[in-house]
Amino acid sequence: MAEAAKVGRTALKTATLAGWGNHPRVECAVARPETVPALRTAVDEDLGDPRRIARGLGRSYGDPAVSDAGVVLDCTRLDRYLDFDPATGTLTCEAGTTLEMILRDFAPRGFLPMITPGTKFVTVGGCIANDVHGKAHHVDGCFSRCTESFRVLLADGRILNASPDENADLFWASFGGMGLLGVIVDATIRLRRVETTFFRQTALSVPNLDAMLDALDAHQDVPYSVAWVDALATGAALGRGVVTMGDHATLADLPERQQAAPLAISSPSPLVLPFELPSAALNTATVRLLNLVLDQVQKRGAAIAHYEKFFYPLDFVGEWNRGYGPRGFTQYQFVVPLKGGRENIRELLSTIAASGQSPFLNVLKRFGAERPETLLSFPFEGYTFAIDFPVRDGLTELLAALDARVLAMGGRVYLGKDAFLQRDTFEAMYPRLDRWRAVKAKYDPDSVFSSNLGRRLGLSR
Ligand SMILES: Cc1cc2nc3c(=O)[nH]c(=O)nc-3n(C[C@H](O)[C@H](O)[C@H](O)COP(=O)(O)OP(=O)(O)OC[C@H]3O[C@@H](n4cnc5c(N)ncnc54)[C@H](O)[C@@H]3O)c2cc1C
């Protein structure tokens, strides 16, 4: 970050920020308030352009937490615990608290986050704003299912309670609301009581897409399930991959050695990718090799796995996003309905495999039912597929073509990963958007809360 300049009472820095995909990179004015009064000042104070957007740990892939207009409010210093009830596992914390902190401090007491995405380096505020989902979506739903209430700082300086009983419109619109209604100051969430921090896990190697979807469909009663597809396989082998499934391990499930420390947490991974690899490093041969390695890791996964390996295999290498080189990458995640889902997934996978865009990491999963009270939450009952693409010539065209097909199939794209979707396609994908816009007009009539994503998709000005 460049030198801080004090404008009024708020210290501002200029920094080039991006999401996890490092695309786009945007020059931003950034404030990093340490207290709620300082946050309120940073929203209220005349800093030139009135627009503001909250940012957590920047783990969204695209442009929801960057803004080339106004000020980005880095909320990571607002990370205090405010209350914890061990009888119910209910935690109240500031919104910059991370799942990594919660694991470190509460796993040894027998509590895990109820809902977690595939990285622990996310803030509670970010989890609400994207209504994140995990491997157990079909059983547990999204982050909204473990959130009891939160407080939101509005553009006019008021801090409102939001829960299903109080300002319920603000509460439900904030899940998937991408920080565009106000800044979540603190939240009350439920943690899950566990006997151990380990999981029972099985991996099933499947030869093609039908076998993969059969396996996912047949194991809907298993709480955690996700599949990894070899995105380069074509023809009869299209959709070949590994389905992994699991559930919380009880004390009795653990081998004797682990029974001595059933609530073990892990130390930070020492592995960090130190610099960006040149784009050329990620050619098709590398991708094939990496896919093969992942395949082996998954297949040989131990029957008992620590949460670190079970939930967060990608966190093992810090800053792995640098591997995609200076142009960055995007993750394309869509969901299509169960009806016609097999044929549709087959078509989309075939298009991706034939695209020559060297897709890499990917997961396929079956989502459970959506929560109808939420307005912009992404998941609904169907098959979801997420796949990384390095940013290269031709990618914009490929994604636009995929967007059009996903829309025609009755599907939608996840904003938490997106940097490319066009406004008209987005508007057609999210049927409760008008209701969300009415909530935006009520609580943020001057569209103070605005990001690059908000302006790209017409969610803010
Ligand atoms: C390796 C990896 C795996 C992932 N796996 C999954 C997955 O399995 N499922 C899933 O759903 N997602 C997944 N994600 C995406 C990630 O969980 C979400 O993007 C999450 O929202 C990021 O949180 P963050 O704190 O980094 O927020 P940021 O990326 O910094 O911000 C995300 C949004 O939250 C808003 N926001 C942040 N703080 C606040 C606040 N205090 N008040 C109001 N708005 C706020 C921002 O304005 C922005 O719109 C993954 C990401 C990575 C890098």
What does it look like?
It contains 14 helices and 19 strands. By secondary structure, the chain is α+β, with helices and mostly antiparallel strands. The chain binds flavin-adenine dinucleotide (FAD). Residues 19-20, 53-60, 64-65, 75, 95, 117-119, 122-123, 125-127, 129-130, 132-134, 178-179, 183-184, 314, 416 line the site of flavin-adenine dinucleotide (FAD).
Q: How is this structure best summarized?
A:
The chain has two domains: 81-195, Uridine Diphospho-n-acetylenolpyruvylglucosamine Reductase, domain 3, CATH 3.30.465; 198-422, Alpha-Beta Plaits. Helices cover 26% and strands 25% of the residues. It contains 14 helices and 19 strands.
Labels describing this entry:
binds flavin-adenine dinucleotide, Alpha-Beta Plaits, globular, five-stranded mixed sheet, Uridine Diphospho-n-acetylenolpyruvylglucosamine Reductase, domain 3, 14 helices
How many individual domains?
A: 2
**In CATH, what is the class of the largest domain?**
Alpha Beta
**General shape:** globular
| Strand percent estimate | 15-25%
Instruction: Decide which structural class fits the backbone.
Output: alpha+beta
List ligands, each type once.
flavin-adenine dinucleotide
- The CATH architecture of the largest domain can be given as 2-Layer Sandwich
CATH level 3 topology of the largest domain: Alpha-Beta Plaits
Number of strands: 19
